[in-house]
Every structure is written in structure tokens, then in C-alpha cells.
Amino acid sequence: MSLWTVFGCEMLPFRASPEPTLLSTAFTRAGRARPEVDAPCANGERMKNEAVIDGITVGGQPTAAESASGRFATVINLREADEPGNDTGSLLAGTDVAYAHVPWTIDTVTNADIAHVRAAVDAASGPVLIHCMGATRAAVAASLVSAENDGSGAAGALSKLAGAGFAIEGTPYAEFVRTYFVSSQPKPARNG
134 is in which domain, residue-wise? Predict the structure, then answer.
């Protein structure tokens, strides 16, 4: 077992060698290339409810081993600070991983929260993980960022969610996706 093998997963330090897991390139809203990676785990295990939406990995709360795996250059945590088991910030403290804490629930989410997530994704220099407790909030955030980037709007965001296996139709999440694109559109200038 190598120094970088933990729980059956090959741990590759991101800063030292991202190329072995490079699959493709995603583009940020600003058009900058951001490499995507696949799981370096030899045994094929993934984190809780892991999915990829247009190059952004989403998932549930990562374990300590997953947090230290080196898979991600940026981790965006959507969990409230007082949610049980929310230890991502402390696990990443002192590492090279960029960390953003943008806590929200479906009852508290605002367009500004999504703007903060988008800013963290756009600033990322490598693979991004957005996580929450179970992955639904993370998937909603990733689909909104992606749909804004490609101009596909609410229909695109909902399609991306369904394609990643998140069935949110008929939930408050679907309603937020629909209203997000209406309320985030710039208002036309008034004459006079």
C-alpha cells in the first residue's frame, strides 16, 4: 500500500499532479478552461449520491478520506454550519483546496446565494465539488450555474438535474429553479 492509498482509493495530491485523472475540460462563465477529473479511486467507489453536471461534481457530505483525496481544487459547502456532521471546513483548513461556505436550504436560498456559488465556480482553477448533506441542493446549484453559462434557462437546469438522476419535479426545488431565472433576469430600462 502506498503512502497515498486510503480506504482502497489512490489519493493523488491535486497540486502535485492533476494530469493522471484529467478527462476533459469544462469552461467557466468567463470562458476560462477548467479541467474536470474523474474519481481516482481504483475500486470505483464514489461519494454519497455523486454525480457530475457539466463538469461540476456534486455530492453529499464527503467523508474525511474523500475530503483529503486531492480530487478537487475547490470545494463549495452548502450546508448550514450547525448541521450535524458538517466538518468540511475544518477538514480542509490548512490545505491547498479552495473552500467556499455558502450555506442555504430550500427555505432560505436567495439569488445571491447562487451568485456566490457561481463566483466560486468561476474562480476555480481545477476540479470543483459542490456538496450538501444528500446532494440535491448541490445539484440544484450546479444546474443553475451551468444553465446560466450555456443560456439554457430553467428548462436547461431542470433537464440537467433529471439527466444527473435528480427527480425534483413537483418539489420546492423545481419551483425555485423556475423562479430563479425569472427573478435573475435584468430588468429592461424604462424610458422617461
Answer: 18-183
